Amino acid sequence: MNIDPQQYYKIVAKQSGKCLDVSGGAAAVAYNGSRIQQWDYVGGDNQKWRFQEVGGGYYAIIVKNRNKCLDVVGGPEATGNGAGIQLWDYLGGTNQKWRVRDDDGGTIVIIAESNGKCLDVTGCVSVAVNG
Asked: Which fold does the domain 10-130 belong to in CATH?
């Protein structure tokens, strides 16, 4: 899969059709600790993401109009299943770096460097990334 680091994408859960969303709407992208959820796509900036290369085949997944990224709650030590995901300033920790694996022509799995777990909605699911 070719990822354009200048383009914003919506990240959609394959099973539900809902997209990756910062809870609280566009205003919530300003705050560290804002919760990540799935939600119907309405096109807000809190639902648009870019993939910034950070080395070693990993990306920081950055929300539109902020330098805040997907972050595994609890830091690199959070290695168990079910760890939450939040929005946080990019600090370069392994809990903020994600590998993107193309499973079948447009469907991807997003995997955290810190724990090798995939980004999911209660159970590991593939996601589609749409520009």
From this structure: Trefoil (Acidic Fibroblast Growth Factor, subunit A) (2.80.10)
